[in-house]
Amino acid sequence: MSRPVARGSGAPRGIAKRAFAIAFAALGAAACASTPPPDPRFRPSENVLEIVAVLRKHVPDDTYRFEAARDVTGRNVFRGSLLRLENLERVHADALRAGHYDDVIAFAKGRALERLRAFDLAAQNYRRVSARTPELEREAQRSAALCDALDEAARIGFDSARPPGEDDEVDPPPTDEKGVVDASERRKALLEALRPQAEGTHYAILIQEEIERADMARAGFFVASRRLSPDGNVRALAEQQQLVIQHRESKLANMHVLGLADLYAALADDYVKANPPEGLRFDPPTFQELVDAASRLYQSVANQDGTPEKIAATQRLEAFLAFTMKVDRDRFTQ
Fold it and tell me: Which residues have CB under 8 Å from 272's CB, separation 6+?
């Protein structure tokens, strides 16, 4: 008769360990089997033509009136194409060492870079192509010349969105009203002079975008410096209104309207600080004019469904109305 195994002996414990290991391995295998394959949208590009085809399709896009297209990953199509070209050069460096695709890659980089406002780098790539490829020489030379001119215009005058560079030491941006106006006019004149060369090409769109940016820089200067002169508020309003009127067709039109609404809201806030509502100098009609103008502009953007600025306008309107209610709760019921 076999002797019973005492509780706590090693045999059942070993069996349990082996069973646990088998179950763990089975679970691991099941997990591996259920892991989905990599998303094909994020795979590396297999060839240059795949990237060039996407760029060629979107080069004529009107990015002045509409947002730039997005690739399958949701990234700006021009930024995404540039990244893919750079990754392709790095991953397939040995295969591309012969240089058969150098001109194609450089030309495609130029097309992507100019849409990202890196005009100087785009011109460098175009010149590299014109020196190597007779078939693309004429187009590459024209593109390089236009990019050089666009880069020259972009470096003129005051632009708060442009980081300081070496050129600022030689030709520092103006800081006074007359200098800003002169530089803005010079910048726009240079861009307007490029229109005949760019007629019928996508460069006409780039020129219009740069003109808008010049107008934005000019209006931004007067808005930022409005407290430095007696008529600063009036001039800032005029410049911001001009920006709204001149670029009604732009994809940034709602942003320009929001900028004007923010300016009216800031003027209302300044008026309350300078003339407390409980004081005798507070003039309700003057304050009401500023409130009506800001509210109307915020509301015009907030009523546009499907635009990214709708949420911003709605939130700013609510915050502004909350501010006005503190001034006189009986006069504001929204």
Answer: 282, 287, 327
Phi-psi region of 99 (alpha: psi -120 to 50; beta: other; left: phi over 0): left
Return the DSSP state at 42: G
For residues 151 and 166, give the distance between their C-alpha atoms in angstroms, rounded to a whole number: 14
* Structural domain boundaries in the chain: 43-154
pTM surpassing 0.85? no
User: Do residues 260 and 279 lie in contact, with contact meaning Cβ atoms separated by under 8 Å?
Assistant: no
Closest CA to 219 of 268, 262, 170: 262
Tokens encoding 286:
């003057």
CA nearest to 257, candidates 204, 316, 207, 319: 316
Local structure of residue 248 (DSSP, 8 states): T
Residue 264: name the closest of 288, 285, 243, 242 by CA. Answer: 288
Question: Which residues make beta-bridge pairs with 76?
Answer: 70
pLDDT tier at 220 (50, 70, 90 boundaries)?
Answer: very high
* Alpha-carbon distance values, 92 to 86, 88, 104, 211 (Å): 10, 6, 15, 40
Contact 55, 107 (CB under 8 A): no
Q: What does the pLDDT look like over 168-216, one tens digit per residue?
A: 544 677 778 899 999 999 999 999 999 999 999 999 999 999 999 999 9
Q: Which residue has the tokens 């059942």?
A: 12
Backbone φ, ψ for residue 76 (5° rounding) = -50, 130
Given a contact cutoff of 8 angstroms between Cβ atoms, the answer to whether 227 and 236 are in contact is no
CA-to-CA dists, residue 202 to 105, 128, 208, angstroms: 19, 21, 10
Residue of 42 and 159 predicted with greater confidence: 159
Count of CB atoms within 10 A of residue 8's CB? Answer: 7
